């Protein structure tokens, strides 16, 4: 068995307590307590996309396909005082991903 090695690190100014969803396309989806949804390159750790959801990200991220379009849904809000975040209503933000080959 080969030993594992560290490929990259992502430094966040706040804890990353949201779930991490990996895709076969080489993208990781997660979020931070700064209210940001993040898409990271799985090979390099580079931030590909950042979106402020308006509430701390401490929930899950799922991806699904409907009628040929790929979606990513991210839960945010309703965190606890333990993390020092403002309590807000829970919300789900959904992104439709561009079709492969689309510019």
List SSEs in N-to-C order.
Answer: EEEEEEE
Strand percentage, roughly? 35-45%
> Helicity, in percent?
under 10%
Strand order of the largest sheet: 1-2-3-4
Number of helices: 0
Mean pLDDT: 86
Computed structural class: mainly beta
Our measurement of the CA-to-CA distance between the termini, rounded to an integer number of angstroms, reads 42 Å
Rg calc: 15 Å
User: Which regions are unreliable across 5 or more consecutive residues at pLDDT < 50?
Assistant: none
Shape: globular
Q: Quickly count the domains.
A: 1
Quick one: how many beta strands?
7
Largest sheet, in brief, is: 4 strands, antiparallel
Task: Please give a handful of descriptors for the protein shown.
103 residues, mainly beta, four-stranded antiparallel β-sheet, three-stranded antiparallel β-sheet, 7 strands
Describe the structure.
It is a single chain. By secondary structure, this protein is mainly beta. It has one domain. Helices cover 0% and strands 38% of the residues. The protein has no helices and 7 strands. It has a 4-stranded antiparallel β-sheet with strand order 1-2-3-4, with no helix packed on it. The model has no long low-confidence stretch (mean pLDDT 86).
